[in-house]
Amino acid sequence: MIGYIRGKVTALFKDSCFLEAGGIGYRIFISDKTRQKLTNGEEAKLLTYMAVREDAILLYGFLGEEEYSLFLLLISISKIGPKVAMGILSSMTPSAFVGAVKTQNVSRLTKLPGIGKKTAERLLVELKDKVGAFSVETISDGGSELAPSTEADPVTGEAVKALMSLGYEMDEITPVLQKLSGSYDNVSKLVSAALREFARNRE
Length: 203
Fold this sequence. Notes:
By secondary structure, the chain is of the alpha+beta class. The protein has helices spanning 32-37, 65-75, 82-91, 94-102, 106-109, 117-127, 154-165, 170-180, 187-202, and strands spanning 4-12, 16-21, 24-29, 43-52, 57-62, 137-140, 143-146.
């Protein structure tokens, strides 16, 4: 099994890329979020998963351990194959997905491609005890930024749940709540302040 490939990106497509290493061009299927971070002509290192089917051998690639680990977890679920898993990773960051699972947010999951209500409910049941190893965080260039602590600050924790129920992702929520941290001791006021921040950021 190929663990990773380091080489030059020679082409980018809608759902895949060509990564040239040792004179061989590997076609690797990637999420949309990974694609956005790759640049044609520049070197990249992708962790890989090899899917062997009767009619094809396919490579799936990931820039980071978190995305790769979540992919493996997703395909371990019944009826979730690599294609559906990549669709999930294209639509939602790992931190946002884990946040949706931890808050049992069925409505968020049903918005994902290939995920109906029954599948979303199955994901919540099967993953709720398996995502503990994942930290709910936002990944930024060169590092990570921890999400607001929901245990140390119950007001922030409730605000996170409220904002996620409104359709916001954890990577949107985190910087705003960190900015407002300690300014409010009331959930509704904190949520209102966060919504004002979101509106200002979009202006």
